[in-house]
Amino acid sequence: MSEIRRDPITGRWVIFAVERAQRPSDFALEEREPPVVNCAFCENNESQTPPEIHADRPARSAPNGPGWRMRVVPNKYPALRVEGELAKQGDGVYDRMAGVGAHEVFIEGAAHATSVTALPHDIYRSTIFSYRDRLRDLKKDRRLAYALIFKNVGVRAGASIAHNHSQLIATPVVPITVQQEMTGSKRFFDYRGRCIYCDILRQEKAEKSRMILETPDFAAIVPYAARFPFEIWVVPTRHMSHFEDASDSELESLTDGMLSVLNRLERALGAPPYNYVIHTSPFVDGHLDYYHWHIEIMPRVTMAAGFEWGTGFYINPVLPEEAAKFLCNARHGQ
Amino acid sequence: MSEIRRDPITGRWVIFAVERAQRPSDFALEEREPPVVNCAFCENNESQTPPEIHADRPARSAPNGPGWRMRVVPNKYPALRVEGELAKQGDGVYDRMAGVGAHEVFIEGAAHATSVTALPHDIYRSTIFSYRDRLRDLKKDRRLAYALIFKNVGVRAGASIAHNHSQLIATPVVPITVQQEMTGSKRFFDYRGRCIYCDILRQEKAEKSRMILETPDFAAIVPYAARFPFEIWVVPTRHMSHFEDASDSELESLTDGMLSVLNRLERALGAPPYNYVIHTSPFVDGHLDYYHWHIEIMPRVTMAAGFEWGTGFYINPVLPEEAAKFLCNARHGQ
Question: If you write DSSP's letter for every residue of B19-71 in order, what string do you get?
């Protein structure tokens, strides 16, 4: 079982995923494209993954066999496992606990495609709806404090398998970055009595200079202080603290919005590696006036180096207004 | 001039370095090894860098000509510039200021070498002493709040030039990561009345399982909650909050210690890309009982992906005790 340790200075948590461990001498410094032949996520290779937790498949098709559109399975090399007790303990000045949590994979499409924009619309729709289902289900486990849903696309964005997929990692503690966002939003709310994300939406809708897409349910903007060139935030219009509280019609809109934005990103930058991450509230919190879920899309076209790691300060060579203009013009192809 | 913007939620700062900007369409997704011919940092190419701020060169040799051992020059494409006023201003819900600061480069050695372990000892010693000199000098500028000294080695660690060099970026605000470390250390001190780094040193010296190098002046350990495989912290034995307060004999020891640790890292992992960062206290603070400067060395053998960016939670496949054992055994070559 893996182990979770806490840095005693910053409060940052690290998962030591010993089951994923290579021997130290195995560290390959070359980046390799993942293999395409015998892909574990392709149809007919269902036996290569652990048994499915959920699948979008015709009513009469058998679980863990072919014929599906989208599957959710436990990660074969999980960072955290559902079984076991947390066993929190001190270790001198340090703290640690057992690696209890969940690590799941959303396999998007039975055919080997490497971009969600290449998928039939209903497969990505099914994925977005499954995000909500899995959050609602895991929320019932009282040992879990948070679940992060994210997608890594391309080797440089950390993807080890090219076949379209997303991941979910549920943790027994609220991660530090989430805590910082919650604290910052709460500070603003306590002072102004308004949600800062709602305020941002109002300003962006008025100024338009960083707006990429505006629909009744969602806005996609390049954030004012974007860390990365062409970073994009997709923010729901309605104030909601938890992703799992989104309605069916909002998830339909989100599917369309995400596909439109990702399509624009690919046209503009030629299928760049990217990560996206759903930022949502911890399980334990009920509806919050001060936090507003959203999705952050981070293209990996620059490298974070010593300065970024040392300071949390970022250097971005592209102004958000320039990035937004470029992404908007990419609408018609180029 | 570049612009600094603040994320209104987390308080994180981003430098928009427009003078470093490529056109959006220029983003090259291929990683390229930097060119070796006509390297701007090699001897006889001094005219390719801005005029030197400091140089370790024989007394009779002319500035900005050949014959030097180590030079400090302004970065040719600076993220921040020394000239100008901060001009802090609001922008609706947002904040920004002009990109005032400093961005300097330490060029280590006139010959084209790509590892400090390949340098004559006195060149790296001269670099370490220059770190202190530059901090002491920039500290006099009241507009500057902090200076970060760091080294990027290898393309995957963000180095765009292969010739041995370090960098310094001085900022008009205290970076968020530094603030978090200061806050965490202060919280521990307020509760226990002791410096947490001193406590860590005591525990590591007793346990030995994560110790790589122990000298009278320094210890090198794999931290208990290492974010990255083979991460190493080099911590001075004497409690000091500011790097620039280190004595000459401590800097001599640091030179030997860093070379020994980096040599071990290269033997163990075969010249991996890495970053190192000096963690020290903000300029404005006088001597602090609760903070303890140190150097963090982060080999780049794994990729940070969506999960890490989304949570500040890290997944590390190598236990610190295993990494320490491996690095210790690398002492005798392999």
Answer: GGPPPGGG---S--PPP-TT-TTSTT-GGGSPPPSEEE--TTSPTTSS--SEE
Name the amino acid, one letter, at A261.
V
pTM for the model stands at: 0.90
Please name the CATH architecture into which domain B194-332 falls. 2-Layer Sandwich (3.30)
Q: Provide the total of helices (H) and of strands (E) in chain B, helices listed first.
A: 6, 15
- Using an 8 Å CB-CB cutoff, list chain A residues near B225: 5-8, 12-14, 94
Looking at residue A109, its amino acid is: G
Q: B214 and B227 in contact (C-beta within 8 Å)?
A: no
Partners of residue A275 in chain B, C-beta under 8 Å: 305-306, 309-310
Active centre residues of B (catalytic): 165
Position A324 pLDDT exceeds 90: yes
d(CA B266, CA A57): 51
Domain B3-26+36-176, CATH among 3.30.428.10, 3.40.50.720, 3.40.50.2300, 3.40.50.150: 3.30.428.10
Q: Is the pLDDT of residue B282 over 80?
A: yes
Q: Which residues of B touch A229 (CB under 8 A)?
A: 24, 27
* Residue A205 in contact with partner chain B when CB distance is under 8 A: no
Q: Which residues of A have a catalytic role annotated?
A: 165
- pLDDT confidence band for A301 (50 / 70 / 90): confident
CA closest to A169 among chain B residues: B307
Q: Does B316 touch chain A (CB under 8 A)?
A: yes
